Task: structure prediction
Amino acid sequence: MKSIIALSTFAAVASVAHGQLVVIDPTAIANNQANHIADLAKYVEMVNNQITQINTLTQQLQQTEAYVKAFGNPEQLLHIVGADQLVTSLQRSGISQTISNLQRATNGTQALAYNGNGIYTSLGATFTTPGGATFPRAEDLYRKYGAIQDSSRNFQTVNDDVLARRATLRSQISATTQQLQASTTDAETQKLTGVLVGYNAELGTVDREIDHAAAQVATQDAENRADRDRQEQALREERQAQMEESFRRYGEVFRLETTPPVFPAGRE
Result:
């Protein structure tokens, strides 16, 4: 009886053990390992790509830093030597007056008293005839001379002003040039070069103010000469008319006798 029970138990255990046995598939294991190796290769490739990108970005950053160091950042160059002074000079207008303003403001009395800093003799407001009579001078007749005198004074004032401004501009050009020689970046060099170009243009403009003032003197002198010729032409015309009128009146007063003379008969 015991032998039968033991056999039965062994059979049951063997049956259960056979049902729980794990079956190993070598093909599946090989596929899984291949897939795992492929995933690792992709991961390694991704990491390598990221490393390459990081190296590339690092090189670009280094190049950018080297460029900024060599060429500079224009936004940081807010105070360039000479720039403010150049703007101030450009905004300053000349002191020269227009020829029309000079003509309107001219005064005949001042023209009569003008002595050219002592090199001329003033005429005075009156004159005396040889007979001892004193007469006032016609002030209006001397206004055209006052106009050219005022133009000459305007030229002298402009010349003094321009000479002072030229000295200032030349000093500022010198300071800007020294700063340009010491510049360390291309951006600073370009801005300083622009300031120098502006200074040279302003210097030429200032010099032309002298030419303009000199042209006013020449223009007024030409007008005075033209007026003198005009007055002389008018005087010649008036004299011609007076001469013709005198001849006509002379002919009316002294008519030639056209009838034959009548002599008295002689005595017998």
User: Anything to note?
Assistant: Confidence is low (pLDDT under 50) at residues 10-14. The chain has two domains: 31-71, 74-252. The two ends are 240 Å apart (CA to CA). The beta strands are 126-128, 134-136.
